Amino acid sequence: MTKNHQMFFKMLFTLTVIAVLSALVLSHVYNLTKEPIAKAKDNRELEAISEVVSEFDNDPFAEKMIISTTDKKDKLEFFPARKNGVINSFAIKTYSNSGFGGRLEMIVGFYIDGAIKSFKITQHQETPGLGSKADEPKFKQQFDGFNPSKHKFKVRQDGGEIDAITAATITSRAVIDAITRAINAYHNFNTGK
Length: 193
Description:
Blueprint: H1 3-52, E1 65-68, E2 75-83, E3 86-99, E4 102-111, E5 116-123, H2 137-140, H3 169-191
Antiparallel strand pairs: 1-2, 2-3, 3-4, 4-5
């Protein structure tokens, strides 16, 4: 074996050892951080739920149910909010894939009659300063008490009653799409379909 071949195999062995050790370290770090990351995500979601529903004294996470979308291709999470044992509002974790930056995830709160209470965007990739304004009070407050079954639930540019965010109509439509998905899944769940 020539000197070049020996050097090549030494380098290959060294790189293999480094790669295996790196994989082991990354695996260990992942296992250490997996649970705290999941708890932090659950805490953010519980905080979002408490922002979008009426006052409650139960644990909506413990009573979480899975409901199907209208096309039965996807599942959404349903969180009932109870006060003194009676459901007074509920939240649904929903999404839209039609945001300007792609997928937009949110938790939507509803009054018991099905009217929207509020929503909290939990994940998005919208343009900072434009689409990110979807989670600001100026845009969100027009949804409080809005009952999509009694009004045109579209942005004004599409003949509806919702004022879109200036220069972020696509994001506004994505918010409506996500809320509509939640409403339709809830109606499916309610009718037993």
